[in-house]
Amino acid sequence: MSLHTPRKKPRIYFDEDGGPRRPHPIHSSPLQKQREQLPIAKGREALVREIRQNDVTILLGETGSGKTTQVPQYVLEAGLAGKGMIAVTQPRRVAATSLAARVAAEQGVKVGELVGYSVRFDDTCGIDTKIKYVSDGMLVRELLSDPLLSRYSVIVLDEAHERTLRTDFLIANLKTIQAKRKETTDAKGKGKAPASGINPLKIIVMSATLDAEKFSRFYNNAKILYVKGRQHPVKIFHTAVGQTDYVDSTLRTFFQIHIDQPPGDVLVFLPGQEDIESLEKSIKTYARRLPESCMNVLVYPMYASLPPSLQARIFSATPSMSRKCILATNIAETSITIPGIKFVIDTGKCKEKRYLSRDTGGGFDTLLTRDITKTSAMQRAGRAGREGPGFCFRLYTEEAFNGLGTAAEPEIRRCSLTQSVLELKCLGQDLETVEFMDPPDINSVVAALKALWILGALDNSKALTPIGRQMASFPVEPYLARIILASNTHGCTSEVIDIVSLISSSSNLFLDISDQRDAIADARSKFRHPSGDHLTMLNALRAYQEMAETESKGSRRDWCRQRFLNERTFTEALKIRDQLRLTCQRVKLDWKASKKDSEESVLRSFTTGLVQNSALLQPDGTYKQLMGHSVVKIHPGSTLADKKVPAIIFDELIYTSHIYARGVSSVPRGYFSGATPTLPNGS
Ligand SMILES: Nc1ncnc2c1ncn2[C@@H]1O[C@H](COP(=O)(O)OP(=O)(O)OP(=O)(O)O)[C@@H](O)[C@H]1O
Predict the structure, then answer these.
(1) Residue 400 Cα to chain centre, angstroms
(2) Best of 38, 69, 106, 225 to mutate for ligand 1, by most ligand atoms within 8 A of CB?
């Protein structure tokens, strides 16, 4: 297909939708004035009064009305938090970090002082912090060491409509924590907060798109409040006819905006990384062909596995005579304000994670592209119109919008529950007995119990073992925590922590470019380990650290580029390693334990954690799961691709054209014996 400018492509026509049209002036006044002009500011007094009077408040308000940034400040400024802290949970780390920056600026402080954030492997909060934006996962972790969350007086569950597994976990636990703290208070002070001890807890649930009645019922008919109005109008357009190729339609719509519309940045919602990368290339190619009189186009990708430092680029100011085009997954759908965004293009698609259980031939997460829900469509449109009037171009018809489902199925109904079961066990609870808003599927609960039992975290009577408790201390997935604990027995914790840190980074260390695989194999031959990817990773890290001791920043980058390695993975992994070493110290594990000839010890440690992620070579040359029914292939990007070895262990299975094992090592079959516990007869 020859390339031609999008101008020559047929235009896409959009129907204008109803919706608020009221023009609103853009204010360039200081932050305080902006605060006062937010729709929520008009209701401030009433809001504070209601929060003061109620244990639980459900707050609904349009996107951009000021809930996330203002409510915590109102609570603080009205003294409702007393001596305690205010936690504001966010389903995504990028939201927690960017909101803390904004609210700190509004308070005139630095992040980490009065206002801070805490996300996995990055905690900025200090002794003065009163407002803490925290990822829902981090608050769950805090629960493990402080089961009454005693340092918080107010917990705000923001974007509760997303119904992530962690948010549902918190929704359920906060209800019991609140009741327990009330009991303590009543007992000590007959209804009044005691001078010392734990204060009562206030819960605020917030969203723009929430089934408020359902939340209210769950929290014993909690009060529902509505914030009226939005700051700036967003004009919504739907395509006149349905689109078959959303990537191509996005390309054309972007250039229609770029050529026809005044300055203003564009935020595009796409389902996943592959589409983002292909569109990034096309937009850059077409942009080069535009006349010089056109503005520059700056394209920024935005997806979960992009390192945080690259994600942060989307918040940078757009230079003059340029237009920022952010290509994002639903990671940018809720909570955040990206300065400069005037136009949103919504493809109407997203990827949904769903766990396919071992019993049905899976044992892995699938990521399938599907239509978004009405809730998502509204959140996406809400990313425009935050600093001035905005526009949202939906690449689907109004009829298609009307046919969308209302809200996505909660994660608790579709994701692996292994980590949650472990966390609940640490709190002395069972998933089967906790009162969730939507109970999990019993098969998923059984699968999680089984996985934990195999890892040795639970005993034959489903009780938490000392190993299980230690596993929960590590801020990594249970199987990785198990590998670290096993390394203690094998005396190679130092090596294992290095590898686990690399696996836990947000991006893959090994860049995989399908048409350059020979060149890649050649470039990596110096540190390639015959046993496979885990020890190759370790060799790569050691080589990198040795080189980095003497080389400049530029040379380090070149060194990584020549070897098709992701330098950011190294830098991130080194930070994660520090955290894991600290955790080891806390649970009295010697992280310095190291072996000169560590191959067998490392692989035995990994086998202990990965026994459920293993496959045996079959006579026909395929690999079949040891625990499960699937036939898997070694991923072409692996150092073991095309190799036939008797048995493999792997970090994950991914499903594309086949079921591929990624992060693979070859191990002797004998390593599996004794790696699993045995059930007593009849269990
Ligand atoms: N980083 C920022 N830069 C510029 N303006 C911002 C920023 N963060 C917030 N704002 C302003 O504050 C307004 C309110 O933001 P806030 O996140 O509190 O709204 P919200 O009601 O929680 O929205 P949502 O439901 O979409 O999360 C935004 O519409 C925008 O005008």
Answers:
(1) 28
(2) 69
| DSSP H helical ranges for 510-641 | 517-523, 533-550, 553-562, 567-586, 599-610
Q: What does the longest C-alpha to C-alpha distance in the chain come to? A: 79
Q: Is the CB of 66 under 6 A from ligand 1?
A: yes
CA 410, CA 168: separation in Å to the nearest integer?
Answer: 8
Asked if 160 and 90 count as a contact pair (C-beta separation under 8 A), the reply is no
How far is Cα 322 from Cα 283, in angstroms, rounded to an integer?
A: 14
| Residue 269 reports pLDDT greater than 80 | yes
Strand order in the sheet with 265-269: 14-16, 234-239, 390-394, 341-346, 265-269, 322-328, 296-302
What are the Cα distances from residue 322, in Å, to 64, 297, 311, 339, 593? Answer: 25, 6, 19, 14, 53
Tens digit of pLDDT for each residue in 410-455? Answer: 999 989 899 999 999 999 988 888 999 999 988 889 989 999 999 9
Torsion angle (degrees, nearest 10) of CA 614, 617, 620, 626? -40
Q: Mean pLDDT over residues 89-103, rounded?
A: 95
| pLDDT tens per residue across span 209-257 | 888 999 999 999 999 999 987 789 999 999 999 999 999 999 999 999 9
Residues with Cβ within 8 Å of residue 186, at least 6 apart in sequence: none
Q: Mean pLDDT of all residues in the chain?
A: 89
Looking at the DSSP bridge assignments, the partners of residue 659 are: 655
pTM above 0.80, yes or no: yes
CB 239 within 8 A of CB 346: no
Cα 94 to ligand 1 centre (Å): 14
